[in-house]
Write a structure and sequence with these properties.
By secondary structure, the protein is mainly β. It contains 2 helices and 10 strands. The strands form 2 sheets. A 7-stranded mixed beta sheet has the order 1-5-6-3-4-10-9. It has a 3-stranded mixed beta sheet with strand order 2-7-8. A hairpin with a 2-residue loop joins strand 5 and strand 6. This is Iron-sulfur cluster assembly accessory protein.
Length: 114
Amino acid sequence: MEMITTAPVSLSASAVKELKRLMSEPDFDTSKKLRVGVKGGGCTGLSYVLGFDDEQEGDVDFDIEGIPCVLNKNHELYLYGMQIDWLDGLNNRGFTFKNPNASSTCGCGSSFAV
């Protein structure tokens, strides 16, 4: 696998805290890495992928504050410069995506168009 030194995406402090909390759970599989990616579908054409997964062919590795991450090299052009945040409010709870490459996003914030 290819290791890149500059992470193509960033995590807010609250996202790092939540991901490290998830990784500290007793049943967490330490062989998994945080996958950041896109897939077809969603309200606007592409939707975000964020979850712990195995490395696959075509992935690049990077690390954000001790969190091992993978990204399919073909997804980098859609995601470069994106910030992932964690909201823990009464109305909004979950990961959010601020993507400078998106020409439009849907109301739920989990899909976008380029």
